[in-house]
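note to self — DONT lose this again. spent like an hour looking for the file last time. sequence + predicted structure for the chain T wanted, 203 res
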Amino acid sequence: RYHNYSVLMCARRRLAYLSACNVDFMADVQVTSGDGGRNWRFDPRIPNAAQIGRIYYLHNDYDCGHLSRRDDLARGPTRDAAIAANKDSFFWTNCAPQHYLLNQSSSFSGADLQLWGDLENHISAQGAKLGRVSVFNGPVFGPEDKPLRDALVPLAFYKIVAWNDGDGGGPDAGAGAGGSAAGGAVGFVLEQADLVASLPEEA
């Protein structure tokens, strides 16, 4: 358990099965990534050897991809609470190797691929209208996952969004995919197999 989110770890893969958060878009305070520091670190409650740390992200095209989004977590009733949540988002347990073009939004990368970062922006835009949403994030572990040192890189990631409202709206996947009057849920799977295939180590 962390401030505003929790993870369920896979010991064999040293990555999270699941990182889940309740996002309160109506929170009194939201802080930036620089508030309280943005240093990734090991969670001391489990062995460092059970977590994939910084060495796996050096000298390659993998980003330290937040599973539960930092912007979603760094909120709270007070500035101190929001800063604590922001700092907690930077545990390696909330991270997985994502190709930078998957992880970054089109506005940042200029690639216009509409992947993880763009999906997060879309969910935030919808969530701001709803007030609160629950978001479940994680890698899809598979037999074709790619070696990275002594670890494996997931080729896909999932994101599930659930909400409760009275208008039938929600972060839909397209026309006609909204929720019921009581709310709803929608899931996404985003793949990075094509991006990973272009990396020098794969060639």
